[in-house]
Fold this sequence. Notes:
Layout: E1 11-15, H1 44-56, E2 61-65, H2 75-84, E3 90-95, H3 100-110, E4 114-118, H4 124-131, H5 136-149, E5 153-160, H6 169-173, H7 175-178, E6 182-187, H8 206-211, E7 216-217, E8 225-228, E9 236-239, E10 252-255, E11 260-262, E12 271-272, H9 278-290
Parallel strand pairs: 1-2, 1-10, 2-3, 3-4, 4-5, 5-6, 6-9
Antiparallel strand pairs: 7-8, 8-9, 10-11, 11-12
Helix pairs in contact: 1-2, 1-9, 2-3, 3-5
The structure holds S-adenosylmethionine (SAM) and iron/sulfur cluster (SF4).
Amino acid sequence: xxxxxxxxxTYLRLSVxxxxxxxxxxxxxxEGVTKLAHSELLxxxxxxxxxxxxxxxxxxxxxxxxxxPLTKPNILSICRQVCATPGISDTGITTxxxxxxxxxxxxxxxxxxxxxxxLDTLREDRYRYITRLGSLSDAIKGIESALSAGFDKIKxxxxxxxxxxxxxxxALAALTQRxxxxxxxxxxxxxxxxxxxxxxxxxxxxxxLEALPALQEEESDGVARLYRLPGAMGCVGLISAVSxxxxxxxxxxxxxxxxxxxxxxxxREELCLKGLDEAGMRERMIQAILAxxxxxxxxxxFTRSSTPRSMNQIGG
Length: 316
Ligand code: SAM
Ligand code: SF4
């Protein structure tokens, strides 16, 4: 289905949980995360009904996210059913990777072919600092499991943070020479869960081009501008979510774990799906698509996102 500006909505990001095994400083607070009651969450059946409703409106691609989707006990059943939904031809998952040693092969068996793994640093001390809880060696084991499982596409996502990991641009990009993966640098977004970083931490991804003059431009793919290092197996992607937004070509809607459709990542506007049957959900999705704003307006280090939700409550 097209929105009022002629953008075709073909991509759904489905958040299956707000809970997470980590507490990344740019994403969610260290403490005080209230666990939603079961009755407030979409059930597995409602999630699959929502995916069917979205497919009936022309959605072909689903990305399963969270919170950390691999903490959801029924994640494999959800993935299997999403992959089997008629009309859905492309299903991926976004994960911090820690549970991939346990899940990578099973996700492949479900039919899932793409995995995005968050990796902001290659230094153990920094990994522990940024995630508050995690271990870099566990994240690397997760990446290695994904490589062994044979996914079609593995992308490593690094949020670029001035004074934290901007000196690691070359080392992170060099992973594309070591493994058949894309490494994507993402601009830090001023979400409500991100209370830790001062304005100087926000830096445009053009910094990556300055740090790596050897990068050669390739054809772009969706929201990422793509480049390649000499001899690399994968691409370096730049996602300029803040400095140069891509609202004009936005093709996505989001569903939160508590059952709200978000027409735009940064807008307050949400429509509730909970308790509806497929026809009711379809109607709400049509309303949401028609309510998609032209753009998210001004967003920078000083102007926060309009949504009160933190990223783990939306799904990134
Ligand atoms: N837990 C999974 C993970 O970390 O990949 C999936 C959910 S996480 C919310 C999805 C993505 O959002 C991650 O790549 C994370 O780095 C990104 N993210 C979270 N907060 C962000 C922020 N303030 N600015 C930019 N990206 C952010
Ligand atoms: Fe968890 Fe992902 Fe947010 Fe980190 S970015 S706290 S792993 S949801």
